[in-house]
Structure formats: C-alpha cells, structure tokens
Amino acid sequence: MADLYLVDNDARLLELYTLFLTKRGHSVRSSTSFHEARAQIREHAPELLLSDLELGAERGDEELARLALSGELPPTLVVSGYLDRQLEAKLARLPCVVGTLAKPFDLATLEARIAESLERARARVS
Predict the structure, then answer these.
(1) Among 118, 121, 113, 111, which Cα is nearest to 16's?
(2) What pTM did the predictor assign?
(3) What is the band of 103 on the pLDDT scale with cuts at 50, 70, 90?
(4) Whole-angstrom Cα distance, residue 45 to residue 55?
(5) CA 61 – CA 114 distance, rounded (Å)
(6) CA-to-CA distance for 8 and 112, rounded, in angstroms?
(7) Are 100 and 83 in contact (CB under 8 A)?
(8) Domains of the chain (ranges plus CATH)?
(9) Structure confidence at residue 125 as a pLDDT band (50, 70, 90)
C-alpha cells in the first residue's frame, strides 16, 4: 500500500479518512494546515498528498502552487467541495497534481481515486 499525507481543516474528516485508509493498509499522516504540512512533507515526502482547497486562512490552490514552485510538491490528489472548471484547469497546470475528487463522495470512490492517482504518479516516474 502507499504512504499518504492528508491536508484538510476538518478534523472529523481527517479522522474518518485516516481510519478508513489505515484499515486498507496505507500509512497515513495528516494535518489541518499547510503551515504544519510543509515541514512534514520536507522531512518525508509521501507517495501521494491528498489536499483540500479551503483551509480557512490558507487557500490550497495557492499553497500547492508554492510547493510546486519550490520543487517540494509530491504527487497530489485534490479533494475539495469547491472544484469548478476554472480551478481544475489551474490545478492541472501544476505538474504534480495527478487528479481531483469533488466532495461529497463515498469511501469506495476515495479508495478508487487514490489507486488511480498512485498509478498516474508512478507512471510519471517511470
């Protein structure tokens, strides 16, 4: 399974996703902000970052762009209730964004999208 890092400001969702994904065999770390996530990603980059976009004081699209500019953005699946065509096009221009998933979704869909995103990320490395 994979080493995943989750960024979402909703602690309840992080708990649910972490429990589900850990039971599926993934190694999961998480944080509620990019301020916290940035240091952990630098220390140990995950195979896949799952990132929300609306994080209160932080905007995920801006933070992802900063990480990409500095060369620190791992393969990323954007998981958000605020996706539209314009935002998806902006995110697609970031070289490490390997997919998007609009909230709400069921856990089976999350698991399938993670598998697809990991395949894309691994194909880019090959």
Answers:
(1) 111
(2) 0.95
(3) very high
(4) 21
(5) 19
(6) 19
(7) yes
(8) 3-113 (3.40.50.2300)
(9) confident
Quick: pLDDT tens for 45-67.
Answer: 999 999 999 998 899 999 999 99
Stretch 73-95: mean pLDDT, rounded? 93
What six digits make up the tokens of 71? 């060369």
**Cα of 83 vs its chain's centroid, Å:** 14
The backbone region for 49, taken as left when phi is positive above 0, alpha when psi lies in -120 to 50, beta otherwise, is beta
Q: How far apart are CA 21 and CA 18, in angstroms?
A: 5
| Mean pLDDT value of segment 110-121 | 96
Q: Give CA angle at 50 (30, 45), nearest 5°.
A: 70
Element (H, E) at 126: none
The DSSP bridge pattern shows strands 54-55 and 76-80 to be: unpaired
